Structure formats: C-alpha cells, structure tokens
Sequence to fold (295 residues):
Amino acid sequence: MTRHARNCTAGAVYTYNEKKKDANESGYGTNAQRLGKDSVKPFDCCCLTLQPCRNPVISRDGYLFDKEAILKYIITKKNEYSRKLKEYEKLKKAFENKQTQEIERQQRIDMEKFVKAGKPVNGAVQKHLGGRATSTIDVDSISNMANGNEKKLPSFWLPSESPNAGNMRLEKPDSTIFCPVSGKPLKVKDLINVKFTLLKDGDASTSLIAKEVRYMCPVTHDVLSNAVPCAVLRTTGDVVTMECVEKLIKKDMIHPLNNEKIKDKDIIPLQRGGTGYALTNAGLEAKEKRPMLQA
Fold:
C-alpha cells in the first residue's frame, strides 16, 4: 500500500519503485534492454547480406563479404558514376552554351549602343526651346519583357529555370568506390579470398547453415565464433585465431601451414559481428527515449 495520496507525485515519499511503475504504465521514461546474440551479426556472415558467405572475401580493413554481393555493389556504384558523369557532361555543355550566348548577346548590345551613339533614336525625345536643344530624355521601355527577356523569365516550377539555377556549381562526380562499411576506398584487386576450415564434428545430417558452430582454426583446432578474435592470413586466406597469431606466428613470422615467410601486413584481423543496430562487444544496450515523468 502506498504511503501518500494517489495522485501525489511531487512529495519526498514518492519512492523509486513507484516512479518506475507509474512510468511504465503511463509510457514515460527511458526503456533499456540488453541485446542478445540475435542482434549481432555472426563473424562468418557477409556485411551486406547478413547471411553466411558462399564465396567469402575480405577487404584490407578486415570486413567480410560474399563475393557475389560485393561485386554487385561495385558494379552498381560504377553504373551510378557513369550516369552522373553523363549528367555532368550534359550540364557542362549546356552551361558553356549559355555562357557563349550571353557573351554574344552582350557583344550585340554593345554594338547597338555604339551604332546609336551619334544618331537620334525612337526612344530619345529632344525638347527644343527657342530652336535650341536643352536635354535628351531616354524613354526606352524598362519592362522585363523587352530586349528578348520574355524568353528568359524565371520559373519556380522547373529547377533549371528557377532564379538561382545559374548559381549552381558544376562538380565532376568522384569515380572512387568506397567500402559500404568502413567508408574507405575499395578496389576489386584489394579483395582477398578467405578459406574457412570446417569443424570436424561427424554430424553429416545437419546442413552447414543450420549449425551454430561451423568452422575451426586449422592450426589449434579451436572453434571459431564471435567470442573468439580471428585473423586472416593474406597469403593463403586461412582463418586462424588471434591467440595462434600472438603465440605461434609472430614469434618467427612463418606461416604455420606452408612454412613460408609472412609480414605484418599479411595478418588481417577479422572484424567480428556488428550490424547497423549494434557493435560487437560494445554498446550492446538498446535504449528507447520517451517523455520524462517529472518528480
């Protein structure tokens, strides 16, 4: 039973539990919830499709992609660049033509002024008092429809005819293709084929996609998962654990499977999990902000 009146929410005896209860019932306050593993992408899934990779490749920054998905992405970006380049060339040509027409029009106006400089024209009326010219008044039309301006009136319905359309700067599109995850430049030649080692569990009846654990380290035979930091050896594409890298590989910098020399750049840490909703092992708490209940 409460220790105060039903609607008294400003007193010192309004307890924390009562406040939380009223906030939940009234729709006020911030809701927080810890995210589970269903909200985090598995380490062996594509960063684009969020599905297990059939033909995995990895970028230099350690992001895993399905080869078909990342090639489609690169082709789409190249087609988009070609379309923007055509639009840029078209706008550039139209801008140059407009500048040429403006220069020709200005030259024509200057020539007409030069021709009319010493002669009386229809727009000039001389007032004579006593046979002597005293002043010249120019009565040329100041209408915005004169001198060919009827074809250059602004239109607020067409973007190309709006008053500020001429102030737009022409910018050539960038042909660089950026990684959809890291935002760094990405090239097809930078993609490295990845080779996962299947876990030898003896269960042939279950499909590979249905298994929760599918792969293992080819050196230590440790099971690979989101909880196990991994790295890709660039020379062969094998996926090993970071523990194997620190304790075995970095001692003499020799590949443990083919005994070849490797360098530090040949060890690429595999970025684990993470979607647009949550990162891996960081920020795994989702919050829903709602109006606050004043105490």
In short: The domain at 41-109+171-193 is CATH 3.30.40.10 (Herpes Virus-1). The two ends are 20 Å apart (CA to CA).
